[in-house]
Amino acid sequence: MKFLVIGDSCIDRFFYGACERICPEAPVPVFKPLDETQNYGMSGNVVENVKALKYKCDIITNKNNIEKIRYIDSRSRQMIIRIDKNDIIDENNKYRHDINKLKGYDVIIISDYDKGFLTETDINDILDVKCTTFLQTKKLLGKWCLKANYIKLNQYEYKKTKHLIEKLYFDIYPGVDLKLIVTLGEKGCMYKGKEYKITKKIEIRDVSGAGDTFLAALAVKYANTNNIEESILFAQKCSTKVVQKLGVVTA
Which domain covers residue 83, as residue numbers? Predict the structure, then answer.
């Protein structure tokens, strides 16, 4: 089974430290870094999760390094500030469509963080490839996404694009089967009007990267079972585990 992930990637850096006093020059905490971790983030984190589930996975992504830097108080686990560097992908690092590079894969996962790597046209062209496709995007949905086998959004992304989804359903393509999975944080997720609730109470320590874990686990399980309900439950189980740990971790 061969997987390919396409999308924007970054380096996630976490600085953990102590905040024990307020700066005399301004009403902000003084942060003393004590420890640092670093992970491959965004679409890179999807790849790492597929690999953690014991499958080969390639990636097509930007070459310039986007960095998400988080400063976190170790005692309270409260994030003090997040700094995003090189957040927009320049023209030289954008996706260049080559159908030959997309052949031979069983599953293609598009993880689009809308940093400029992929356009709507790019995604539409990728979805023409004859294999199972999963799409996660921060763009507002349109007819360019209709060929995806499954689309995964979080609840905030869904709210932003809900009016366009309704338009696709009722006006442009009446009765279209838009296979949309919406994650709802600690409440679980929703698919075709059915809620998949998290019944076990958990301590959420860090939600960073949980959506990437859900997407990777969903795609892996579906590739093995062809059963979307089993895949949703498995993805939910994996993402529930990672939010109980600090930083960006894999399933």
Answer: 2-242
